[in-house]
From TrEMBL:
Protein name (Swiss-Prot/TrEMBL): GSKIP protein
Family note: Belongs to the GSKIP family.
UniProt-recorded Gene Ontology molecular function terms: kinase regulator activity; protein kinase A binding
Domain GSKIP: 34-134
One BP term from GO: regulation of canonical Wnt signaling pathway
């Protein structure tokens, strides 16, 4: 029987890779590409604003994307989209201002609702029209 003067290294069962977002790609689970998410946000509310598009200048990544929006009041904003939600990061397209400490909103609806009374009106009217259409549908 051979003697060794060192103990074999014990590897923990949980290496931490499972929780590390950098390794999520390997399993293809729960990876949210924020650019795709941002495109979906834009498509959802474009009808209720003057202009809205995903920034081509600011870097999009797995965890962050930037959306430019111009409200019907002609105010321009650059929005940051992350897992935490959406927030205004500048008062112009394709800009970020680190000094701005704006709150996160869980949804684009909530954010636009706080920025634009005209958005609120257009969105509300669209909702009413959809409800009327559903009502007629259910009656026929």
């Amino acid at each position: 029987r051979m003697e060794t003067d060192c103990n074999p290294v014990e590897m923990p069962n949980n290496t931490g890779f499972e929780e590390d977002p950098d390794y999520k790609d390997f399993e293809g689970t729960d990876v949210k590409d924020m650019r795709l998410e941002a495109e979906a946000v834009v498509n959802d509310v474009l009808f209720a604003v003057s202009n809205m598009f995903v920034s081509k200048t600011l870097p999009c990544a797995e965890d962050v994307a930037y959306i430019n929006v111009e409200t019907r009041e002609r105010n321009k904003y650059c929005l940051e989209l992350t897992e935490a939600g959406l927030r205004v990061v500048a008062y112009d397209f394709d800009q970020t201002d680190d000094r701005l400490q704006t709150p996160y909103h869980e949804t684009v609806y909530s954010l636009l609702d706080s920025l634009s009374p005209a958005y609120r009106e257009v969105f509300g009217n669209a909702l009413l029209q959809r409800l009327e259409a559903l009502k007629k549908e259910s009656q026929s």
